[in-house]
# Entry
Amino acid sequence: ETGVTQSPTHLIKTRGQQVTLRCSSQSGHNTVSWYQQALGQGPQFIFQYYREEENGRGNFPPRFSGLQFPNYSSELNVNALELDDSALYLCASSSEGNSYNEQFFGPGTRLTVL
Amino acid sequence: KQEVTQIPAALSVPEGENLVLNCSFTDSAIYNLQWFRQDPGKGLTSLLLIQSSQREQTSGRLNASLDKSSGRSTLYIAASQPGDSATYLCAVVGGAQKLVFGQGTRLTINP
# Structure
């Protein structure tokens, strides 16, 4: 069974640029959630995709957007990068959009905005 | 709005001690609670999942309890080892599988 994978591992961008982060869900999982973790803080929920539809969004501006593909992998896109977007971006997968199900996290992408 | 608090923020103990990490949440209407471990700069490893109808879960040297009515959970680590050094996060799910996290407890086990 393949776990959750994310790419790239690290990324350095400059303010104003755009970035795309990728996540492959664990085998058999159709739900992907994205989280932002600033240094020294707990992760904050960005949004969730269930069967290719957005299924909930946290308190993040519209320049944070996402996609989920038919194979349930997902992308997180961030436009007009700001210095405060520097963080560890985590994705988690689970099955069937069920709130009782355990979520499994990937290793994260470390984004640095200069 | 659900808020999760973890106390203490940091803890340093000698190897071999038993220890307890605390987590509290403000809204008792949760589906489940998960405890995670995070090593520096890494992703989250799920340790234990407690459903809202359960009181505790055990895995090896770890035991997590849940008191939904009082909004509290504890993670008990028995016979601590240096390899247990990490940040421990608790998170609750209140709906739509959105995890709400505490800020974590940074644990150091001294040999």
About this structure: Chain B touches chain A through 27 residues (CB under 8 Å). The radius of gyration of chain B is 13 Å.
